[in-house]
Fold this protein.
Amino acid sequence: MPQWIPACATDDVDPEDVIPFEHAGESYAVYRSPDDVYYATAGHCSHERELLCDGLVMGGVIECPKHNGRFDYTSGKAMGAPVLVDLRTYPTKVEGGTVYIELA
Ligand code: FES
């Protein structure tokens, strides 16, 4: 059954940036858009499992630090070679200054 898990404080993520979040042995990436909307994806790149939290965030896109594969972090969509498999995304919500991720 899906559960809302507290991931971080809203101020832990700068606008247009990403931070890592770990829960139950899994890695996630939490993003904050320039207009303060929060998103969450799988923490590892779908290409060779590099951690995406070390990547570059710009214009709604996360660029993997290993081979520069790019994903739309709002949808998880892979944007072309070398990344061909979309990232899993997770619903988020903000309550009382905390960002929650809905995990199954
Ligand atoms: S590991 Fe991310 S693009 Fe290759």
